[in-house]
Amino acid sequence: MPDSNTVVVGSWDNSVYVYSISQGAIVGEGRTHEDAVSSVALSEGRVLSGSWDGCVKLWQLRQSRLDPRPLLDLYDHEHPIMCVCMDATSRLACSASQDGVVILWDLRTGTRQRTIKAHKREVTGIALSNTGYDVTTVSSDGRVKMFDVTKGDCFLDINTGEALSCVRTDGDVIFTAGESGCVKLWDVNHQDSEEKARICTNSFGHKLAGVSLSRDGEWMAAGIENESGTGDLGIFKSI
């Protein structure tokens, strides 16, 4: 959400939509992808979209409306893109694809900075730390990994024992969720070889499809997939 009144989403119909909560209507859209838009990220009036067409696009967001043409089209992925993220300054972006590859992009020049073979299976979640110096990935292979953005080296590799679907981090702690229906917190600075989460919530009984943190870190929302195909939302408050 770029503000408290605007939601940006990717769609199966190859589009990026901007939705106004107060108006209850779509107020902007981008339609240049050639397959489903699997992920979007927002920062500083910019929207980053990743698609199953293997393309990453950067859009300008002006007064809750997308410019009709993207600022950048980035085509270096060879497989469908599963997730994207972007730093707070809209200078660095990361995209991850079905073949386990992560690409780091310089959005100022539209060039690829680095390619990392992060996982053996699809990358299902990706997040940059607050500093932008490292990137965290999760996968259906059950592993959480952190990489140095500058060198591309992996300096943390945790086997969680479950297929993962989403991740959030500030660089010091990592939140993951997946098939078990639990949200787990991992301490980056005190992670040992036992690979045990510092905090694990009770299971919701269904797979968790996504987690999101409030800007102040006080609240966390978890999206729950249930058997009917509809979704529920779990809300947590830090204590």
Question: Can I get a quick summary?
Answer:
This protein is mainly β.
User: Percent of residues in helical segments?
Assistant: under 10%
* Gap between N and C termini: 25 Å
The averaged pLDDT comes out at 87
The arrangement of helices and strands along the chain is EEEEEEEEEEEEEEEEEEEEEEE
Overall morphology: globular
Number of strands: 23
* Class based on secondary structure composition and strand pairing: mainly beta
Approximately how much beta-strand content do the residues carry? over 45%
Number of helices: 0
Low-confidence segments: none
Rg (C-alpha, Å): 17 Å
Largest beta-sheet characterization: 5 strands, antiparallel
Fold topology:
Elements (H helix, E strand, L loop, with lengths): L5 E5 L5 E5 L4 E6 L6 E7 L2 E6 L4 E7 L2 E2 L5 E3 L6 E6 L5 E6 L3 E6 L4 E7 L5 E6 L5 E6 L3 E6 L5 E6 L4 E6 L3 E6 L4 E5 L11 E2 L7 E6 L5 E7 L5 E7 L2
